[in-house]
Amino acid sequence: MTNSGSRKFAALILFAALSVSACASIPETQEGRAEYDATNDPFEPMNRTIFDFNDFLDRLLFRPVAELYRWTVPPPLRDRVAGIVSNMREPVIFANDLLQADPDKATTTFGRFAINTTAGIGGMFDFANDLKLYQQTGDFGQTLYVWGVGEGPYLVLPLLGPSNIRDAIGIGVDALMSPWQYLAGLRGPGTENRFDLAYFSADGIIKREQNIEALDALRTGSLDFYAQMRSVYRQYRDKQLGTSSSEGMPKYDDFAQ
């Protein structure tokens, strides 16, 4: 994806997130309004359609690829690849730490990136974690939350999955903030496209492989998989924002980010 392509992608997410807000219909009955407020999902019919599309692609493509990755790549090598991809997120986390005016988190993130990029050979080894410099949660959706922006209605994004208007905007901004696409673009035309394809493919495969069992259990144990995923996403996001406890919550490794 070129710089122009990244901007168009971010603009598309922003446009979609803002435009759907015009089509909400508020129930007239008291009971309907109470359920509407509780779920904060006024676009549920549209969201369910997108969710079903994502689930179809997951069954057809994403889960089989993740299984193949697990079967063919030994765990130590998978850990090294995951470490590199995780380390590449640190500049965006650092930028959001600064935007949130949190110097402690920013210092931790900077230290992690410096240590793991050098001693950890690009993030293959997480020596910063051994020094109790743990990875922070910093994204632009979180930054907007710190600035007082409400989450807006629940959304399911094509391919990207559960979100809301605030976090959908955050995804687009984070994509623009990442320095790697710009560095890749310095190597000539087409390099940025190949880098983006490789990076986002690797990131998606890693996350899906890490959550094979958790998502399988959630799917088979749910009477309504859509509603259950909506609930789990909100619990996971609330944990990242520090607005609720994670006690009793299923473990997912960044399945929605």
Coarse shape: globular
Strand % is under 5%
Total count of domains: 1
Enumerate how many helices there are, as a single number.
Answer: 13
**Average of pLDDT:** 86
The radius of gyration is: 19 Å
What is the ordering of alpha helices and beta strands?
Answer: HHHHHHHHEEHHHHH
Strand order, sheet with most strands? 1-2
Cα-to-Cα separation, first versus last residue: 19 Å
Tell me the number of strands: 2
Low-confidence stretches: 19-24, 245-249
Please estimate the helix content: 55-70%
Largest sheet: 2 strands, antiparallel
List the helices and strands and how they pair.
Layout: H1 3-19, H2 30-39, H3 44-72, H4 75-87, H5 90-99, H6 103-118, H7 127-130, H8 140-146, E1 154-157, E2 161-164, H9 165-177, H10 180-185, H11 191-210, H12 212-220, H13 225-241
Antiparallel strand pairs: 1-2
Helix pairs in contact: 1-9, 3-11, 4-11, 5-6, 8-9
